[in-house]
Write a structure and sequence with these properties.
Layout: H1 2-8, E1 10-11, E2 14-15, H2 17-33, H3 43-55, H4 60-79, H5 85-92, H6 115-121, H7 127-139, H8 143-147, E3 154-155, E4 161-163, E5 179-181, H9 183-189, H10 204-207
Antiparallel strand pairs: 1-2, 3-4, 4-5
């Protein structure tokens, strides 16, 4: 499986973060059940593995994510005819941990930074970083999306520009990502359009 994962979880020729996440998920499985035949691993074993993660103080969300990755590993094993499909179907019956109904550590949701702190920081930033923060704030795009902005990815044919990042979180699913850019964001971006269309608008070198 690991040979497969190293070729599958790749982005732009480099291992993606998901490969590391799979490694962390499979590590306790190997530690606790590495000597067990795959066809002997069932729902009770998965629950015991899950409880060991809870006991190690992993949060509810992290535990659920790792258990789902372990299920994905067994699904691959079924597809390769290494184990019968009944093993994976049994593991699917193990529901995820529910908020407030287990002993797993709960974490608070990540909230946006208050505007007062953003306003306090803006005067201290370079023009490039300040513009990136303001554009992200106005459009709601992800940090990586504003970092990758290029003129060639922005349709400026109408009053509202449309930015389509050439790389984004769900590109591997075949989804398109379209970000509307209104007049305020346009005014911030316009001074950075004085470069080749395929160059990033916001340059760390220029910021230095």
């Amino acid at each position: 499986y690991w040979q497969f994962a190293k070729t599958y979880y790749v982005k732009d020729g480099r291992p993606s973060k998901e490969l590391l996440c799979m490694k962390y998920a499979l590590r306790p499985l190997r530690k606790l059940y590495g000597s067990l035949n795959g066809i002997e691993f069932g729902p009770l074993a998965l629950k015991a593995l899950r409880q060991s993660m809870v006991d190690s103080d992993l949060s509810c969300g992290v535990v659920n994510a790792r258990i789902n990755r372990i299920k994905r590993f067994f699904k691959w094993c079924v597809a390769e005819e290494l184990i019968p499909a009944s093993i994976y179907e049994g593991l699917r019956c193990v529901a995820g941990l529910r908020f407030g109904r287990t002993s797993a550590r709960e974490t608070d949701p990540v909230r946006p930074v208050d505007d007062v702190w953003v306003e306090a920081v803006l005067p201290l930033l370079s023009p490039q970083v300040k513009s990136m923060v303001e554009v992200q704030r106005l459009t709601g795009m992800r940090p990586c999306e504003v970092t990758l902005m290029r003129a060639c990815d922005i349709d400026r044919s109408s009053d509202v520009w449309v930015y389509e990042p050439h790389d984004h979180k769900n590109r591997w699913r075949g989804h398109r990502r379209l970000v509307p850019i209104g007049p305020k964001s346009q005014d911030i971006i316009r001074p950075f359009l004085n470069r080749p269309d395929d160059s990033n608008l916001f340059s760390p070198t220029e910021a230095e």
